[in-house]
Amino acid sequence: MNLRSDAPPIVASAPPTLVIECLTPAVDCGRFSAKRLAGDVVRVGADIFRDGHDILAAQVLYRGPADDEWRSVPMAFEFDDDRWYGEFAVDQAGGWRFTVEAWIDAFATWRGELKKKHDARQDVASELLEGAELVHGASRHARGGDRTALDSAAALLRRAAAPQAERVVAGAAAPLLELMARYGPRPGLTRAPAPLPLWVDRPRAGFAAWYEMFPRSFPGAAGGHGTFRTAAAALDRVAGLGFDVVYLPPIHPIGHTHRKGPNNTLLAGPSDPGSPWAIGDSAGGHMAVAPELGTLEDFRFFRERAEALGMEVALDYALQCSPDHPWVREHPEWFFVRPDGSIKYAENPPKKYEDILPINFWCDDRAGLWHACRDVLRFWIGEGVRTFRVDNPHTKPFSFWEWVIGEIHGEHPDVVFLSEAFTRPKRMKRLAKLGFSQSYTYFTWRNSASELESYITELTATPMREYYRGNLFANTPDILHEYLQQGGPPAFRIRLLLAATLLPIYGIYSGFELFEAEPLRVGSEEYLHSEKYQVRPRDFSGPSLDEDLMRLNRLRREHPALQRYDNIQFLPTGDEHVLCYRKVAGEDDLLVLVNVDPAAPHTAAVDLGEAMDATDLATGVSERLDATPWEVTLDPSAEPGRIWRLATLGAPGGEA
Amino acid sequence: MNLRSDAPPIVASAPPTLVIECLTPAVDCGRFSAKRLAGDVVRVGADIFRDGHDILAAQVLYRGPADDEWRSVPMAFEFDDDRWYGEFAVDQAGGWRFTVEAWIDAFATWRGELKKKHDARQDVASELLEGAELVHGASRHARGGDRTALDSAAALLRRAAAPQAERVVAGAAAPLLELMARYGPRPGLTRAPAPLPLWVDRPRAGFAAWYEMFPRSFPGAAGGHGTFRTAAAALDRVAGLGFDVVYLPPIHPIGHTHRKGPNNTLLAGPSDPGSPWAIGDSAGGHMAVAPELGTLEDFRFFRERAEALGMEVALDYALQCSPDHPWVREHPEWFFVRPDGSIKYAENPPKKYEDILPINFWCDDRAGLWHACRDVLRFWIGEGVRTFRVDNPHTKPFSFWEWVIGEIHGEHPDVVFLSEAFTRPKRMKRLAKLGFSQSYTYFTWRNSASELESYITELTATPMREYYRGNLFANTPDILHEYLQQGGPPAFRIRLLLAATLLPIYGIYSGFELFEAEPLRVGSEEYLHSEKYQVRPRDFSGPSLDEDLMRLNRLRREHPALQRYDNIQFLPTGDEHVLCYRKVAGEDDLLVLVNVDPAAPHTAAVDLGEAMDATDLATGVSERLDATPWEVTLDPSAEPGRIWRLATLGAPGGEA
Question: How close does chain A come to B183, measured CA to CA in Å?
Fold first, then answer.
């Protein structure tokens, strides 16, 4: 059996070809899109080589969502390892493509050999004739002055009466090179097998501070159950803290059947509001709003208020239903039916979620179901929503996500999807590859300096960086880590500082700023009196993280270095409790030092390798850091971390 | 523009699917074959996962060159990282394929949930009915006793009168599991996109000691120009040294036009034999033998003598012609014609090779040319040759090699091709991927311990190991490294020890065993009086490496650990001049220590991490190595290296 069925047959028309491979950026050889932000410069790399000794030339071909044809930009051979690079800017959200083509630069090859032989004092009469043929051939593709210029160059190369030295010089004249680059032959012209996809998001998909809040817990002066109107009044505070995105858990009608009571108990009292994730009752399903929050008109008021304050509203997209959801009545075939005829509720044995029915995405009427799910997104997009936090996507089919995100992005390339998958690594990665713009991470469970360094390195310096944008939530309604339960306010300050500076996207869930830390029970990551099952109005006037939040969110907006994803470099500190990282973007050069032990001061020794000016961004005080390791002690009860702006000695920009 | 055109459409018949990806072994995602040897066990790995919580099952499908259908072997989920493995043996040279398929193990999923719920004392009446349905469904595919057994199992699961505990136990009975594995449903059955190719060579392609010799330098008692007959008499010595392959530079008629004289001078005297790489004259081309060596009959005598001694003969496949080659007259269109009508000779400016014409592989009659080149191989294969050392393959088209090796391997899977490409890394790698069985390496230029460790690690512990089999030649007629020129006999002993033990394939070129070290001039890697241009009879009776060669080649045959490619592990020695490596194959556990400084003794401290018995394979003396670092001094003027066989304390096999 000869397996090499893809080996080239001998075909009379087959041209010589080049090898073009290992194109970057690429995700799984082009099966998925690499991700970029509008405004980015995309650096394309490729291995390009061929048998023999010819000089090659190459270019990147690229096209944006609005382009009818390919645009091109030359590539350069940067290192002696057959690796070429070229760059282009992406200025618009949507689907881009790029590829690489390369060819033999016959004229450059000719010139190179001519020079070597002439320098070795060899006779080059025949070589000059070869060059004349190349130039003459090119002139047939030129017109006007270009053609005349090429013809006279060919004539000079051919003129046996002229001294060889003069003709060799003429063959390397700059104007001739330019003309030959334009009109010269491109033997072996080869294009990489298939264009690679690149998905470009709007900038906020890659740089934003998120705030998660349950509107029902923000009542007016009268107290009780909050509404969109009363919660809108709380937006000034959120905007004042510097947040960009306000994310609301599901705002739809909440089911009554098997409604959960406080602390996830099985029997809800008549005044218990239930879990917002048990979606749907007689008032409607995923396209309705819970009457207790107000009307669709009230939601619009809330959204417009947020936007007026410079924020946008993100909604929850949770594809599951309460037993009272209209779909259960209208489309029982969309759910799982048990042998006894009843519809199956959600469970993760031995845990039961009687108030929630999972959807059967592979049911016979999956066409109807999938379209209905897509139409939920279309409805809220019609309501001005452009960001969706997707609940538990790993329990729904991968192919559904690829399809539905593709459908929506085809119509609205500005829509942002955040994947809330906490599961095994490859499944989280797959969802990101399938199209999710951002993804939750394991950040809440990475608390030591070495864990943080290794995890952030994985996110930003491995192939993940091309498709997985981590959103570092410091807490969620489901995750109150032991570190926060036991570390007191210093722990909250440390985690906030890390979340806000390690990556450009981060978030907190309401109550974090008040140091809320009481678990359901010892060993649990659930909050006591979890807001998932009850209304939890808060007093925001007491001790809080507000000052830290305001300062960090301001620094994030001022410093391009905090807005980029893959520019982090960790430095040794000599102390296992102190994390040190440097983030650079152009002139903006920041150094962050964090003591991750909330219980005790630690001293780090940091070495930048050169003496630099450093300005502490909290105090504004500048100092000179020597080239030798310098020591800093961080006392978390006073200040768990510091951020400096660095500048080379004597350079401008030494202050913030 | 929606780029996700490969996103799944909603099709009523579309089933749920699994993700199966990152299959190994694979070369460039299956574009090329991974390589193995007949007798190997192939370990197949794959990432296999799906949305949701179902338990999965998977198997490897594979087929050899003689198989009409797929064979299968189950895979197991070895680590909690969605990575699965399965193994199969390859017992025959030729093209193999494998792929992976996986499915939802519906019965195992059911059993798992049933157990969790039953353990949590939940009522499982409905679950038992679901299980009964699964078993009943499977019984429809069974016959006879299997069907009866399944039907009664289903009946028991369904029997409401029986206690649940009893029915739960029945659902996990071993015979039922076996039947369900055979007849149970396989929802989501998914196969990896395309089978991966695996090229299996005969064992000697991966384990052999090569000896390169010019027959003309092995005259009989009368002296003068050696012949196949006189050189055959020298084969006893070569076989006695323990070599497996005798490689002959081109044996074809040598051209007369511009024949090179001694030391590559331009004018050959009438008695100068010329370079064997200037192939072809009136006596014939690539399918003829040089009359001065004898006849084809004499070549057969030589080959048969080698085979009688347990060796095989490798020929040189050098696709270039002297100006006197018959092809030049019969097919001038196969060469490069200059503007003045003359045929171009080979050059690498400013160097000229006037005695050699390169072939124009992309000429108009490339079909005729490529077939003629292939027929040269067929001719020598017909003469019993099964190994070819290919001269300068990187100056001929990649696509030619892929085609011609594919053609030959389709007919003769036992043919071995060695790529003699010394060029940039990616081009050498490409040739190996295209089908070359073995490749020359940068070994001659890697002389320090750190260079050797890093280079051998690259060869054996990166993706290269799947397709690139390095053949460590210690010298060649073109490469006499400065290290050998200056290091004296200890340098030769060191390099031989390294070549013979670092990788399972190595070679020397005749004269190495006599410590030949005189360069053409200072700074040159060319030999003075290079055998490429003159006859060089040698006196093999003086001081030589014979003892080392015999010992090392014997150890290589005795020790499986020296026959494997990717089983090397380097250990720190605390001295930059001492290299330490361990090679293990099953019970065979070897430790090699080499001082790579031929000029001075050095002392290493080696730590095996545990106390072990060690037997020195040169002296046979056993000793106990402690768990703490132990010191060894190696004096290259006495013994530059040592090899021990290791055994765990008290275990049998502590001696060689």
Answer: 21
Which tokens is A601 given? Answer: 């001061």
- Report ipTM (2 d.p.): 0.91
Cα B403 to Cα B316: distance, rounded to the nearest angstrom? 19
Consecutive H or E run containing A108 = helix A106-119
Strand partners, B209: B506
- Work out whether strand B312-317 and strand B387-391 pair parallel, antiparallel, or are unpaired: parallel
**Which two three-digit tokens encode residue B369?**
């040319």
Instruction: Give Dmax (Cα) for chain A.
Output: 108
Task: With CA atoms as reference, report the closest residue to B502 among B460, B451, B558.
Answer: B460
Q: What is the CA radius of gyration of chain A?
A: 31
Half-sphere exposure of A102 (CA within 13 A, CB side): 29
Contacts of B398 in chain A (CB under 8 A): 19, 50-51
Q: Are strands A83-89 and A94-104 parallel, antiparallel or unpaired?
A: unpaired
* Model confidence at A11: pLDDT above 90: no
Supply the DSSP symbol for A629.
-
Residue A414 annotated in active site: no
Q: How many CB pairs under 8 A join A and B?
A: 196
The first and second tokens of residue A176, run together, are 């001739």
Is B223 within 8 Å of chain A by CB?
no
Question: Which amino acid, A486?
Answer: Q
Contact A583, A562 (CB under 8 A): yes
- Of B420, B516, B548, B613, catalytic: B420
Q: Which residue of A has its CA nearest to B120?
A: A350
Q: How far apart are CA A473 and CA A462, in angstroms?
A: 21
Q: Catalytic pick from B212, B316, B391, B466?
A: B391
Active site residue A420: yes
Handedness of CA A258, A262, A265, A268 (dihedral sign): negative
Tell me how many helices (H) and strands (E) chain A has: 15, 30
Contact assignment for B426 to A116 by CB distance below 8 Å: no
Could you tell me which of B372, B432, B194 has the C-alpha nearest to residue A3?
A: B194
Closest-CA residue to A518 (of A528, A530, A509): A528
d(CA B607, CA B625): 9
Distance CA(A272)–CA(A265), nearest Å, equals 11
Q: Does A2 touch chain B (CB under 8 A)?
A: yes
CA dihedral of residues B191, B192, B194, B199 (deg, nearest 10): -110
| Per-residue pLDDT reduced to its tens digit, A385-435 | 999 999 999 999 999 999 999 999 999 999 999 999 999 999 999 999 999
Residue with tokens 């194109």: A23
Q: Do A2 and B406 touch (CB under 8 A)?
A: yes
Closest CA to B502 of B580, B424, B604, B389: B580
3 state SS of A124:
coil
Structure-token pair, residue B511: 């004269």
What is the per-residue pLDDT across A113-167, written as a single tens digit (0 to 9) for each? Answer: 999 999 999 999 999 999 999 999 999 999 999 999 999 999 999 999 999 999 9
Which pLDDT score, from 0 to 100, does residue A652 have?
57
Across the interface, whether the CB atoms of B395 and A51 are under 8 A apart is answered yes
Is the link from the previous residue into A25 a cis peptide, with omega within 30 of 0?
yes
Per-residue pLDDT, A10: 53
Whole-number Å distance between alpha carbons of B268 and B273: 8
**pLDDT at res. A7:** 44
Tokens of B620: 């046979």
CB A369 within 8 A of CB A402: no
Instruction: Using the Cα atoms of residue A136, residue A137, residue A138 and residue A143 in order, give the sign of their dihedral.
Output: positive
B60-105, pLDDT tens digit by residue? Answer: 999 999 999 999 999 998 777 899 999 999 999 999 999 999 999 9
Q: Say how far apart CA A256 and CA A131 lie, in whole Å.
A: 86
The residue type of B173 is A
Which of A4, A130, A404 to mutate to probe the B interface, most B CBs <10 Å? A4
